[in-house]
Amino acid sequence: MSDSSTALSRLTGAQILVEYLVRERVPLAAGIPGHGCWAITDALLDRQDSIRTIQVMHEQSAVHLADGYFRATGKPMLAFTSIGPGAMNTLIGMGTAYVDSTAVALATGSPHTYMRGHGLFQELERRHHADNPRVFEPVVKEWWQPSRVDDLPFVLHRAWNAMVSGRPGPILLDLPMDVQAEAADVRLPEPEAREARGRVRPAADDVERAATTLRAARRPVIVAGGGAILAEAWDEVRSLAERLGTASTCGNALAVSADVIISVGNRFTDWSASSYRKGVTFAIPPSRLVQIDIDPREIGKNYPVEVGLVGDAQAALRDLLVALGPGGGPDVYRDTPYFAEIQQLKATWFEQVEVLSGSGATPMTMARAIREVQRATADDAIVVTGAGLPQGMVKQRWVTRRPRTHLTSGGFSTMGFTLPAAIGAQLARPEAQVLAVCGDGDFLQTMEELQAAVLAGAPVCTVVLDNSGWISIKGGQQTFFGRSAWTDFVTPDGSIYSPDFAAIGRAFGIHSEFATAPDEVEPAVRHALASGGPSLVHVKVDRDLAVAGPDKTGWWDAPSPPNHPEQHERWLAGRAEEQHQ
Ligand SMILES: Cc1ncc(C[n+]2csc(CCOP(=O)(O)OP(=O)(O)O)c2C)c(N)n1
Ligand SMILES: [Mg+2]
After folding, report:
1. 512 within ligand 1 shell (Cβ under 6 A)
2. CA dist., res. 577 & res. 361, Å (int)
3. 96 lines ligand 1 (CB under 6 A)
């Protein structure tokens, strides 16, 4: 099929955008109207049959919402803003999406082409006219600022293709107000004729070499990252694990002693690789690395590879499984000492986890609170986190049973992500339970989106884990500086402060609960979910650093200054063992 099969139609720029979204089967748009995007919101009004428009209360949330929608479905939606501050408000959302390679289409208003540079209301123009997109450059895969209406069909299919193909990422369409409003005779692009379809497969000889390496492995470990989810390669990851008898949720002990590491769409950040300190999470070399990534720039970036496979994770794993041929499986690996060792390490880990997760103390540990929240939810519930202790705690303790049910701003670790992203996930999966599990600090950054949830009728359950502070940061300060600074919430008279979060929920008109004892959490979450609408559960958790956070399992290179000699020496010692240089 080609575009020429579609009829010539007279459309405004905004209508071209909206009709193109309809062709791409985009069901949702989220944003805040302003004069910079009046033509877009007006055009959306005419296509309510195909696209539902969601009102958010802050533009950052429009992008987080679209990001949450993408993470839950693998499909992009539109975020839109006015010109100037509305557009700029999305930067953190775009940064979050870019770092985690999620696809979000953002349309922002831009000065009329014939007014550019004159100091138009809300224009940035002192260095370059209509300069907003340059601020976005480091956080978008591509940006476009078309100057003519009849340019738009071309711009749209180019931008769309960039957004969804290869390693996905957010795109920016900065649309001049006259371009939005003027009409032209255009042919709308036919998505099928313009999109890059199919999956990129690695070179056959590389696959053979990887298979040879894997066949010889005695202690293989799979490290699966976001690329495995993006490529929907969960079945293939499982098949490879079964074929090889690998450990996947293995922890540091296994990764560090692996003879072969198979990385699937994982970029070895400092966070996941213990800042590359040899022998903490990884030791590559001597472990040999087979690295699969769709983005060739990631191959060998942080560790040298034995074999690099450039390709889609699902396609690469399928090829690898074919190359490995039959064999393996439980009959073979169950009798190995390696399998016994994995079982032993897992049992030890679960015992360790039980200390905080099973604690009956009040105030309750965050670990116990997380366990109780999960007890109130179904197997396919979606949990969303943004930053801080709740993010780490859910990563460590929430039992994730299905792909795309644990959504977190892993790379940017963005406070304020949780609630709006959860609304996006809820809109993506209306029938699922969606839990926005946030710290008090995270919630306070975007709590206005309780209103978005109400307006959209999205029955997200927000769980606020209240420890009256930015306690993850306080813990880091203690570790790396030996004292804390401005991380507790304290009033001038020295008392610890928290607002009444349940009352905030009630003020937005939603079902709200309050829990202080561990056994109050599960019923509170059940009642909240049963309310059928948006809800909030305020949970008081222990702020004592000894029990506040996840169990520490790795090493993190956070520079400590010499005026804290003990911490400084520890930092230098750890740094000396880092493998990345
Ligand atoms: C937007 C943003 N600002 C600052 C940070 C740095 N930061 C990471 S976690 C955190 C505190 C999180 O507090 P809260 O949500 O209350 O969770 P807690 O760690 O207290 O449980 C801060 C300030 C961040 N990740 N994102
Ligand atoms: Mg907190």
Report:
1. no
2. 39
3. no
Cα 269 to ligand 2 centre (Å): 25
Which ligand has its closest atom nearest to the C-alpha of 392?
Answer: 1
Contact 171, 162 (CB under 8 A): yes
**Residue 436: count of CB within 10 angstroms of its CB:** 34
**Residue for token digits 């579609």?**
6
* Angstrom distance (rounded) from CA 237 to CA 171: 30
Q: Which atom of ligand 1 is nearest to the CA of 439?
A: 15
Whether residue 413 has its Cβ less than 6 Å from ligand 1? yes
The Cα–Cα gap between 474 and 487 comes to 6
Q: Which ligand has its closest atom nearest to the C-alpha of 442? A: 1
Mutate to test the pocket of ligand 1, among 63, 356, 415 (most ligand atoms within 8 A of CB): 415
Ramachandran region, residue 477 (left: φ > 0; alpha: ψ -120 to 50; beta: rest): alpha
Alpha helices in 204-312 (DSSP H): 204-215, 226-230, 234-244, 251-256
pLDDT 10s per residue in the chain (581 long)?
566 657 899 999 999 999 999 999 999 999 999 999 999 999 999 999 999 999 999 999 999 999 999 999 999 999 999 999 999 999 999 999 999 999 999 999 999 999 999 999 999 999 999 999 999 999 999 999 999 999 999 999 999 999 999 999 999 999 999 999 999 999 999 999 998 888 999 999 999 999 999 999 999 999 999 999 999 999 999 999 999 987 765 589 999 999 999 999 999 999 999 999 999 999 999 999 999 999 999 999 999 999 999 999 999 999 999 999 999 888 899 999 999 999 999 999 999 999 999 999 999 999 999 999 999 999 999 999 999 999 999 999 999 999 999 999 999 999 999 999 999 999 999 999 999 999 999 999 999 999 999 999 999 999 999 999 999 999 999 999 999 999 999 999 999 999 999 999 999 999 999 999 999 999 999 999 999 999 999 999 999 999 999 998 899 999 999 999 999 999 999 999 999 87
| Angle, in degrees to the nearest 10, between helices 366-375 and 337-357 | 100
- Taking the C-alpha atoms of residue 162 and residue 540, their distance in angstroms, rounded to an integer, is 45
Q: Which ligand is nearest to the CA of 388?
A: 1
- Whole-model pTM over 0.90: yes
CB distance 409 to 435 below 8 Å: no
C-alpha 263/C-alpha 250 separation (Å) is 13
